[in-house]
Write a structure and sequence with these properties.
It is built from 10 helices and 7 strands. The protein has a domain of about 190 residues: 3-Layer(aba) Sandwich (Rossmann fold). It is of the alpha/beta class. Strands 3-2-1-4-5-7-6 form a 7-stranded mixed beta sheet, with helices on both faces. Helix 6 links the parallel strand 4 and strand 5. The radius of gyration is 18 Å and the shape is globular. Helix 2 packs across helix 4 and helix 7 packs across helix 9. It is about 35% helix and about 20% strand.
Amino acid sequence: MVGLEHPQTADYGAVMAVDWKQRAVEQWTADPCGPLATDAEGLLRGRREYAPWMPSALDYAGAQGLDVLDVGCGQGIDLCEYARAGAHATGVDLTPRHVELARTHLAELGLEGTVLQGDAEHLPFEDASFDRVSSNGVLHHTPNIEAALREIHRVLRPGGLATVIVYNRDSFHFWVHQVAFRGVLHGGLVRERGIGGVLSTGVERTSIGARPLVRVYSRRQMRALLSGAGFERIEIDVSPFRPSDTVLTRRLPARVPLGHGWYLIARGSKRK
């Protein structure tokens, strides 16, 4: 089908010609990521309602006493969860507005944590600084995911664990909602000249018509990317499917046991 090549090699073959990082800053300055809430407790509650599987996938409880880095920490939702679980939590984000909000939400909850502005592809930390690194819903927006994964590997201590959550190319949301509904039925593949443009205009909530970089990855691609960055003991899981993920399934009961959820949960360890 025309325009369905993977965005990394097709629509964004000239990816470096666009300042995707500036687009990301514009997007999340106007519309900070996460649930629509004005307080920290509301953000955490909204996340758990949206993705009740995330606390287990990111293992907040198991981070007690560990040095944990959240790459692309956004408004600080995962950062607050890690800090609340007793981790020594550090967050880094490209968008100054996110940094400001993450600090505010930590303080609002009476939690300790460090939040810095920085680039996932050039992390501002020494080698072997953290026991764990997580990156939740972030690296599918960065132009050079290979560099970001190498940086995550670099700042991990030997034996450390990385958990990276990205959009799933084999999900119902991608094929039914983005490709079939928006791309084919509504002409997005022709109008946007490929799936990359469809994703850029229709995945993230925006009030300013922003067009951030949005990529999707298969299990095989994520395994290869993690392996290429030096990770071992790689595991790739898929999030549960939510009926609201597609326009064709929104009327189904919430507990319908369908597979192919919208997120891949990729884990890898650094050699001891």
